[in-house]
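Lecture notes, structural biology module. Today: joint structure prediction for complexes of two components.
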Amino acid sequence: MSREKIIRRVAKPAVFVLCLGPVFWFAWLAVSGGLGANPIEATNRYFGDWGLRFLLVALAVTPLREMLGLSVVARFRRMIGLYTFFYIFLHLTSYVALDQFFDLAAIWSDIVKRNFITVGMISFAMLVPLAVTSTKGWMKRLGGKVWQRLHRLVYAAGILGVVHFYMMVKADVREPLIYAAVLGALLAWRIFRRIKRKAAGRRNAHPANS
Amino acid sequence: MLIRIAKPSDIKSSEITPKSVFLNRRKFLKTAAVAGVGLAAGQLLPSEALAGRKLDGIVKGNFATAEEQTSFMSVTSYNNFYEFGTDKNDPVKNSEAFKAKPWTVEIAGKCEKPGTYAFEDVIKPHQLEERIYRLRCVEAWSMVVPWVGVPLGDVIKRFEPTSKAKFVAFETIVRPEEMPGQKRPILPWPYVEGLRMDEAMNPLSLLTVGLYGEELLNQNGAPIRLVLPWKYGFKSIKSIVKITFTEKEPPCTWNQQAAHEYGFYANVNPQVDHPRWSQAKERRIGEFFKRETLMFNGYADEVAALYSGLDLKKYY
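The predicted structure, tokenised, for the full assembly:
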């Protein structure tokens, strides 16, 4: 098999199934009673955690590609990005359907009144256009430059997602701080790359292409 | 003959469910299934390993309400007790090394009989009562727990607080080697709590040593804790080693941690929201749908008079 075939027929399906792992694990927890005494709260947290983790993995794709020269990882970026959306969507669904049981008045007052929910909802809203425009067709329609600019929204969504987690916690902020540190590193890498490219661009007197 | 007059805070006896049924958490399963939720939560491990020692000579207390009780399994595995970790299942996992016996309680401050008392000397002179109380956590979940204890007011009287004793302060033990959560300053240890004297003397205030007819397990605050059913759970301080009668309002841990979120009073109040979430409703552990939170957690008849004239929005 050619390299291309291996990516398409083996690697992609394998990563696809791997990314569904948390769903299978959740099903097992639910069936075995592993969700504990408050399964609704546990469900909420579980999918929120996985949404954030996938978001960080998606943001790690480009740094990995460039630092390790692993160009192949870029082939999985869209899939991981869509899985991020999938898990955050499940997180939101769990909140709306299980926690609030479609009590729209209560949900609305939560969004308006509670800062951590406001922040979480804004973060989710930012991810919606990214999921919608993730197809090749939308990429063409928007053009590379606009598409890329639009998809930088993911940085803001990531920051708000971590802030949402941090604000929710009562006293023990170690876990959200770990997420914040990883996100910070991934964003810092991008900032440094930008500065370096600008400097290189000036030296060459040719504007950099990205 | 003892005639018992039903209080509004009592729950109809028709709502009582045998222990075998609620242990199965069947109700949650059924409602979840009806709601079309695929949460087929199975049974947890049997609870034999968790069982504590039986307490003898318990009588049914006055406030034995008859609402469906939360399963022993949930009561002993879903706990907020940061001394053993911040996850709900940390206390049951991390409290094995904790030695609740022997135990002493120091009595100090404005009283005639200060000193260090053995646990038995604090409790023995009183009649153990079972009281089935609602427990409302500030995080908007709730339980119904059959506690075993003695009226706090009766115990306090024996130490003869003076007229200067306006408040009672309580303190949890500090033993980082047995309480792994205390190895890090997540909260300023020791955990401290306090009550106004009249709140402490209220007949609802229970100095608690057991639940479900057994001695308290470590994760539930062994060997001695408070239970104040009209206040959010964090006021019901666990593993008490010191009781001090004071003239001034004593500090309270969560109030120190975030004063705008947790007040000194912390009375259950559906009209005053926590800044980060609504307090209007609560999820009873084991149930799918939320229920309305009741003023003073349904104990208004017993405690509302304590707060007449107090702005509960300001003194939350």
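Point to remember: The mean pLDDT of chain B is 88.
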